[in-house]
């Protein structure tokens, strides 16, 4: 699943303005969300939005682990305080911050480096993974080979490679250990 770098939410993002993670999530997953009612996510009522998001979340994996298993503690904590729709929106926001943090200009370091995360998300369609990533656009033209490589493509390609080799943390506990022992 290709993240469109030309999407206005990414291209027009400005520092000191709130980055709309939830909207970018629903845009990237639009084709999967439309499977439920065959309509745009924005046209659904809250109950149908909740069902459509839940169906996508059921298929989602983070670092080759089902999302519901990876974020089990958070989901249990939220279930006591929130209704189903609010709980799903909180999970979507949490996942979207992992997926799209590199595009948020508010998280860019002073030296211009974008924020990186050690989580890669994929929709598992019966064993075939559809990674959420920026893909290399097809090179066209005479000077296509001279184009400067896109750092986002390299970042996501590295995450995909690490996921396929099993090098990314499979739980929050593993992630905490990896953070303290680089």
Keywords:
single chain, 182 residues, alpha+beta, 4-stranded antiparallel sheet, 9 helices, 4 strands, 48% helix, 8% strand
Structural description of this entry:
The chain is of the alpha+beta class. The chain has one domain (8-177). It has helices at residues 8-11, 21-28, 30-37, 46-59, 67-70, 72-81, 84-100, 151-164, 172-180, and strands at 60-62, 65-66, 121-125, 128-131. A hairpin with a 2-residue loop joins strand 1 and strand 2. The two termini are 30 Å apart.
Q: What is the overall pLDDT average? A: 91
Shape: globular
What structural class do you assign from the helix and strand content? alpha+beta
Strand order of the largest sheet: 2-1-3-4
Please outline what is shown here.
This protein is α+β, with helices and mostly antiparallel strands. Helix content is 48%, strand content 8%.
Which secondary structure elements does this structure contain, and how are they paired or packed?
Blueprint: H1 8-11, H2 21-28, H3 30-37, H4 46-59, E1 60-62, E2 65-66, H5 67-70, H6 72-81, H7 84-100, E3 121-125, E4 128-131, H8 151-164, H9 172-180
Antiparallel strand pairs: 1-2, 1-3, 3-4
